[in-house]
Amino acid sequence: MRKVHVRNFKVRKFHVDEEVRNFYNGMFIDLGELAFFTGKVVKQFFQPPFEYKELIKQGYLIGNKSFSLISVTGFIMGLVLTMQMNPILSNFGAQTLLPGVIAVAMVRELGPVIAGLICAGKISSGIGAEIAAMSVTEQIDAMEVSGTKPLGFVVATRVLAATIVVPILVIFADAFSFLGAYLAINVFENMSIALFVNSAFDMLSFKDLIPATIKTFFFGFFIGLIGCYKGYNARSGTESVGYAANSAVVSSSLTVFVIDLIFVLIINIL
Amino acid sequence: MGQEKVIIVKDLYKSFLDKHVLRGINLTLHRGENLGIMGKSGIGKSVLTKCIVRLIEPDAGEINVLGTNVLRCNEAELNEIRKKVGYLFQGGALYDSMSVRENLLFPIRRTQFVDKKREAEKLVESSLRSVGLLDAIDKMPSELSGGMKKRIALARTLILRPEIILYDEPTTGLDAVTSGEISELIVKIREEYNTASIIITHDTKCVKIATDNIKIMQDGVFVAEGTYEELSRSSEKEIRDYFMWKMNIKTT
């Protein structure tokens, strides 16, 4: 019995080593390939033909599909945050600061990150699954043989559309969170909309707005890019469609946090 | 069948990691010829046709299509060649997000094959009429049966009036009647448009109806060549057996 146990342990250890090595190898290979893919996609932004119609179509689809989810989430975030913060600020007699605190928290951090994560789930997975399905069913090849560059028509348009649309969605998320916050404040006390807006914007400065807006462009770019990359590199078989969608969500969600961290570090240094 | 050679493939090699798929393929296709390529699944028949339009880059060899070496031409030249070579994919590869009309208009718009919208619409209608599916013009691919998808894909392939058509398993997954109709359609297209074709198939009925010559592929090379009659009455039992669905041929 003991011998069998020892043998099993050795086999298991070997597999763990191999798994860890494969994971790191795979990660670095993936990063290298993603960097190469990014270069090719960015090149397409500046190479004619420029696919304006497809860009507008993709922008509309991405925005339209995510708008309701983003607005509801933003609204609930504003509502919940206000209900959580109100008793704490009341203890210090600082209730008048509530609109400003909510505004800073939402605009600077929560709005972009929450909206970014929702977009990672909604947009990146959608793009990943769509392109993977196109790849598996040879639609990408069909496009290429009919004289169309799939990287330009399919990939660059989606990446650019996500880069433009995600910041707009974040603005909507922020706006709806303000609405939620205003309603929640009015549960506890009467506050006019003018006073709420004044108090909120009094505490906001360009230092809050500009970096928060800039990072949403990066969120959008990488959400679109990772979705396209995972879909474009899907292997044959329907199984790979699900895998592409799933890994697009995981990778782009992680990337949202990494970009956020990098921005916080840069802002703190500046 | 003319004497002009439209495709010449010389010593073509392609490997995927340690799997050697093509091991020195040689092939010549003449104008107006329908050439069938048969062989087991996964032995590289589709890889060969994809190399011809450079969807896959071969490791070594030479591919000459309509007088142009496709492995040495630039992107613009390659696109010009691709306009003249139609490719019918195994599953049809219709764009799911577009209607049948948009699927057919797509290559016209992309290649600016005709300038005017009305001319493009006429071309779409005539292509659909030639495959007998004009009624399906406003349907989405998801509303079509397998056979209809293949026919629409064929109409899309025909729309740029190609000189060469590469058919990748045109009858796979279809019932006997529909696959017979597709095979007859391939013959009709050759007669109507004077196209040269490579037809990859496992369907012995299809090669009998639609091809002039057949090549049988095994282990990355062609192991037998001839007409359907010649091969099915070959003195070598292994080749005759092939047409009786016994696919293991020893190299001749």
Verbal overview:
The complex is a heterodimer of chains A (270) and B (252). Chain A has 270 residues and is mainly alpha-helical. Chain A contains eight helices and no strands. Chain A has helices spanning 2-45, 52-91, 98-136, 139-145, 150-188, 193-203, 206-232, 239-269. In chain A, helix 2 (52-91) packs parallel to helix 5 and helix 5 (150-188) crosses helix 7. Chain A is elongated and about 65 Å long. The relative contact order of chain A is 0.15. Chain B is α/β, with parallel strands linked by helices and 252 residues long. Chain B is built from nine helices and ten strands. In chain B, strand 7 (164-168), helix 6 and strand 8 form a beta-alpha-beta unit. The longest helix of chain B is centred in the C-terminal third of the chain and has 18 residues, at 176-193. Chain B is globular and about 55 Å long. Classes of the chains: A mainly alpha (270), B alpha/beta (252). The A-B interface holds A 133-134, 137-139, 141-148 and B 50, 53, 55, 79, 82-83, 85, 87, 89-91, 93-96, 106-107, 110-111, 160.
Give the oligomeric state. heterodimer
Protein chain pair with the most extensive contact, residues per chain: A-B, 13 and 20 residues
Q: How many extended strands of chain A?
A: 0
Structural class of chain B: alpha/beta
Element string of chain B (H = helix, E = strand): EEEHEEHEHHHEHEHEEHH
Low-confidence segments of chain B, given as residue ranges, are none
Write the layout of secondary structure elements.
The complex is a heterodimer of chains A (270) and B (252).
Chain A: H1 2-45, H2 52-91, H3 98-136, H4 139-145, H5 150-188, H6 193-203, H7 206-232, H8 239-269
Helix pairs in contact in A: 1-5, 2-3, 2-5, 3-5, 3-6, 3-7, 3-8, 5-7, 7-8
Chain B: E1 5-16, E2 19-30, E3 34-39, H1 45-52, E4 60-65, E5 68-69, H2 75-84, E6 85-88, H3 100-111, H4 117-130, H5 146-158, E7 164-168, H6 176-193, E8 196-200, H7 204-210, E9 213-218, E10 221-226, H8 228-232, H9 237-242
Parallel strand pairs in B: 3-8, 3-9, 6-7, 7-8
Antiparallel strand pairs in B: 1-2, 1-4, 4-5, 9-10
Helix pairs in contact in B: 3-5, 4-5, 6-7
